[in-house]
Design brief:
It contains five helices and no strands. By secondary structure, it is mainly α.
Length: about 110
């Protein structure tokens, strides 16, 4: 199986259309159908967007198709500067609101 066929198999396994693959990677839709092989730059782009795809399997036919060691990045914003500044903004708005309510009552 060629590297292109392996990527097509990966996309089928993950239920990803070639159109979606093309949009995500920025590679043309026909890249998996045309030409002999993928260049290093295209392999690098695919690896960047699909880190669970085992490139040793794609290139050398070694190992499994899916890497088990890939972990998704944590999306926690707790205690980050952004989260703290958002909290501060909300608290400032609340204080401003209560201050304006107190002025109206006086």
């Amino acid at each position: 199986m060629s590297s292109k066929e392996k990527i097509i198999a990966y996309l089928a396994y993950k239920d990803i259309s070639q159109r979606k693959f093309s949009l995500k990677t920025g590679l043309s839709e026909g890249i998996l159908r045309a030409g002999k092989d993928l260049g290093v730059d295209k392999i690098r782009t695919i690896k960047e967007h699909y880190p669970d795809l085992n490139m040793d399997w794609v290139i050398y036919d070694e190992g499994n198709m899916i890497l088990n060691t890939v972990s998704e990045p944590s999306m926690s914003y707790e205690n980050t500067p952004v989260e703290k500044s958002l909290k501060q903004f909300v608290f400032d708005c609340i204080e401003e609101y209560f201050a304006s309510q107190n002025k109206d009552e006086s």
